[in-house]
Amino acid sequence: MNLADMLSYADIHELGRIAHTYECECNGHSKNELIQSILSTAMRKDIFEKHIQSLSLENIRFLNSLLSDPRNSFSMEELNARAQQSRFQKEEVPGDWNPRDMILKFKKLGWLFNGHSQQTKYLFHVPADLKRRFGDVLAKQFKQNLVKTDEPTVYRDEQSLLVDDIFHFLTAIAQQEMPLTAEGFMYKRQLGQLLSILSVQEGLVAKGTWRFGYGRMFKEYPNRFSLIYDYCYYHQLISENDLVLRITEAGKARLLEGKKETVTDVYTFWLRLYKNPIPNLQSISVWLDRLCDQWVTMASIVDLFSKLVKPFYYDGSESIVEQRILQMMMHMGLIRIGEDHTYGAVIQVTKIGSKVIRGISLAEEDKVVLF
């Protein structure tokens, strides 16, 4: 429902609180006057943008979490959890802070409403028309923080190399089974030989490096190959029985058919795999598509989105944006990264990247099941 519909179901006390927030001058005892006054005031472009621009960083994170969710309703417990996640540990200041205050603020602004039926009265809803406007205003605000550049003379675009390498990996395992260590990893020698045949070269993981959270094989395998390996494992194209890495019948069928994965398949899997350390990964991907149709500096992108991405243990917000998001999206062919002689690294979403990002919904993403 849109704002007008939700206002019509709200009781007069709630309408009065919203009208007071917008300093509406009307008869507070007339529900119709309250609704008309709120609509004419709250939907004004200048007033709407002023309230968005005055939001604190934690308010923007909370709002962003609502925008990126395709569902229409949220329980109080869900909203509380999102509000808690919007406040990063390092930003805490002395004094009491209650996540319900943030929810109450959004209710007073007319951005959250209780359901009107017996089944939905304990759920909260965001008006559909406001949801669209939130996205437009935030996009305008975010763009002001980005530094645009001309097309660089040199850039890196890996296109479909990752899906090609999935096929190459399966071919190599089909030709020769690999022994595994007691911990279930490939030996360094065999791993090095395997990495050397792939389209994008990666070095072995340095001993003692802190690595976990981005897949079951992330601890021992380099970033890109870890994604390839986990994709094949979770789609049951390879098996690890009896400390031997083998191709499965499903994997053999892929090779016989000459069938390669799609970028969409890998992107969907990546969203699910990285969802725990980066809960708003899908949202960041959508913003990148919306903001980076032209070349922009990586520094400005990292600065913008590191404010929205929560640190993951020793992995800081900046490194998550740069290494876990941007670098991996480049490996999937979703973005390309260039070098500008003035600004350094610059990025742009590719045409295929835009199609893939816009074509995946959260509902589709959740179809991928990780064991």
Describe this structure in words.
By secondary structure, this protein is of the alpha+beta class. It has 18 helices and ten strands. The protein has helices spanning 3-9, 12-21, 31-42, 45-53, 57-67, 76-85, 99-108, 128-143, 161-175, 188-196, 223-234, 249-257, 263-273, 281-291, 298-305, 317-331, 351-359, 362-365, and strands at residues 74-75, 113-114, 123-125, 154-156, 178-179, 238-239, 244-247, 296-297, 335-340, 344-349. Strands 4-9-10-8 form a four-stranded antiparallel beta sheet. It has a three-stranded antiparallel beta sheet with strand order 1-3-2. Strands 5-7-6 form a three-stranded antiparallel beta sheet. A hairpin with an 8-residue loop joins strand 2 and strand 3 (123-125). Helix 1 (3-9) packs antiparallel against helix 3 and helix 9 (161-175) packs across helix 11 (223-234). It is elongated.
Give structural attributes:
371 residues; alpha+beta; four-stranded antiparallel sheet; three-stranded antiparallel sheet; disordered C terminus
Strand order of the largest sheet: 4-9-10-8
- What profile does the largest beta sheet have? 4 strands, antiparallel
Strand content: 5-15%
Q: Which ranges are low-confidence, i.e. pLDDT below 50, for 5 or more consecutive residues?
A: 361-371
Shape: elongated
Structural class: alpha+beta
Helix content: 40-55%
Number of helices: 18
Distance between the termini: 37 Å
Order of helices and strands: HHHHHEHHEEHEHEHHEEHHHEHHEEHH
How many beta-strand segments? 10
Mean model confidence by pLDDT: 92
Q: Whole-number radius of gyration?
A: 24 Å
